[in-house]
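#structure-requests
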Amino acid sequence: MTLSTHVLDAVNGTPATDLRVSWYSGPSLVATRRTDADGRIREWGAVLEPGIHRLVFATGEWFADRPAFYPEVTVTFEVTDASAHHHVPLLLSPFAYSTYRGS
């Protein structure tokens, strides 16, 4: 299984470049990466196993030059299909966010 994410800045309509994201499996940190120029993390250097996982987006750090309500956004999701790719997009603004199960 693989895991990817894509973060978009809804205020500017641009990718959220250089945003720190940490991936946890249960209580254990798996990896920390930064989004690329397209706002994506395509590779984590680890295998996604069935279970409960969290992506923690360091939004407060990323919005450091402007006021923001959420210091971090945590998306918790469950992997049950061992053969599927899991994509977790995040649409971000200083005072709101949304996510969904991507493809």
